[in-house]
């Protein structure tokens, strides 16, 4: 359905996916944003579990990446610079001295070509061609992202890409989740587990230092479910730097392009909503909404305060183009990038 126009007159649409159990996802082709995602609580009440806005112009005016596709490179690249195939590439510095989430006009701000799939499960195919040197990245990159709302109560996101030059690719979904439904309260009572063997400490610019640090009973140990608020104010330099959690965890399950492994679980004890995250990616960025400061007025007139939503962004590691010890994000001509992430919903 038509959803409005951008300032330059480009038309934008909104698509509605539903499954046999009544789950509903509304997705726009502007930035591939999941505008809403309605799931039941333990009493069967359907409510929205993602933060965002009601109108297109609100997303265009001021969007802290609510619900969007992030690319070409999710997360940060130090000083917006990397060397590849003997050449240095300079990207936009849009996060202090660093490059964040694809730059000044990343994939979150473009209009994707959208084709609904009416043959099988409720799906939306989004495609975009990022031209050579867009935001400073080499190669003409052809990207396709498929959102599927399955009858297993999953929001499944599958990413594909090809290039005609060596380049770096790291695509992710930047949904802000709040399982209370309608964002009734903050996420500090949500119980989180992360299937992880360690995390990446960061410097003051939130760039990984290169250390792979074990969890060892630290505030970053979510190997067993615990409320997010338990240790978020612990006296720890890493928590002080990020003003909470904004780090990449190293996933411990073996990764396979065909079989997404369990990355994390999230539970709101009051509503009963339970979310499991499965992915083929080697890492997950847990961001506890530390920079939501009350200036964002979202759906239903709810003002999003500090830690009113959280992100679980499945991805390769931040600053990988400058860290040879991290799993590579290089995509070569003639090869195919593919990645799958599943957010599965139930109650307990």
Care to describe what's here?
There is one protein chain. With 348 residues, the chain is mainly beta. It has one domain: Distorted Sandwich (Beta-galactosidase, Chain A, domain 5). The protein has helices spanning 56-61, 237-242, and strands at residues 2-5, 11-18, 24-28, 34-40, 46-48, 68-70, 76-77, 81-84, 87-90, 99-100, 113-117, 122-130, 141-149, 154-163, 167-168, 172-174, 191-194, 196-200, 226-227, 246-251, 261-267, 273-279, 283-287, 296-297, 303-304, 311-315, 330-331, 337-347. Strands 11-12-13-14-28-22-21-17-19 form a nine-stranded antiparallel beta sheet, with no helix packed on it. It has a five-stranded antiparallel beta sheet with strand order 1-2-3-4-5, with no helix packed on it. A four-stranded antiparallel beta sheet has the order 18-20-23-26, with no helix packed on it. Strand 8 and strand 9 (87-90) form a beta hairpin. It is globular and about 60 Å long.
């Amino acid at each position: 359905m038509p959803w409005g126009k951008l300032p330059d007159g480009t038309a934008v649409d909104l698509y509605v996916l539903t499954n046999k159990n009544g789950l509903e996802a509304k997705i726009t082709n502007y930035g591939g944003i999941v505008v809403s995602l309605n799931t039941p609580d333990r009493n069967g009440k359907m409510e929205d579990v993602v933060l965002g806005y009601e109108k297109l112009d609100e997303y265009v005016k001021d969007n802290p990446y609510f619900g969007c596709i992030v690319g070409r490179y999710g997360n940060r690249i130090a000083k917006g610079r990397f060397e590849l195939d003997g050449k240095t590439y300079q990207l936009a510095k849009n996060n202090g001295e660093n490059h964040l989430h694809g730059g000044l006009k990343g994939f979150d701000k473009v209009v994707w070509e959208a084709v609904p799939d009416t043959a099988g499960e409720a799906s939306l195919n989004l495609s975009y061609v990022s031209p050579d040197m867009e935001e400073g990245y080499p190669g003409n990159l052809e990207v396709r992202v498929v959102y599927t709302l399955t009858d297993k109560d999953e929001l499944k996101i599958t990413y594909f890409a090809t290039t005609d030059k060596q380049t770096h690719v790291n695509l992710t979904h930047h949904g802000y989740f709040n399982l209370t439904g309608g964002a009734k309260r903050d996420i500090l009572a949500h119980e989180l587990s992360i299937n992880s063997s360690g995390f990446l400490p960061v410097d003051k610019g939130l760039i990984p230092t290169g250390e792979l640090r074990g969890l060892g009973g630290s505030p970053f140990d979510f190997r067993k479910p615990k409320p997010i608020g338990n240790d978020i104010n612990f006296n720890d330099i890493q928590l002080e730097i990020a003003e909470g959690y904004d780090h990449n965890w190293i996933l411990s399950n073996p990764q396979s392009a065909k079989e997404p492994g369990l990355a994390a679980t999230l539970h709101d004890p009051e509503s009963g909503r339970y979310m499991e995250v499965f992915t083929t990616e080697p890492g997950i960025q847990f961001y506890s909404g530390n920079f939501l400061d009350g200036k964002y007025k979202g759906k239903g007139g709810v003002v999003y305060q500090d830690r009113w939503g959280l992100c679980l962004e499945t991805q390769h590691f931040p600053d990988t183009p400058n860290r040879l010890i991290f799993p590579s994000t290089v995509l070569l001509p003639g090869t195919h990038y593919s990645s799958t992430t599943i957010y599965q919903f139930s109650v307990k």
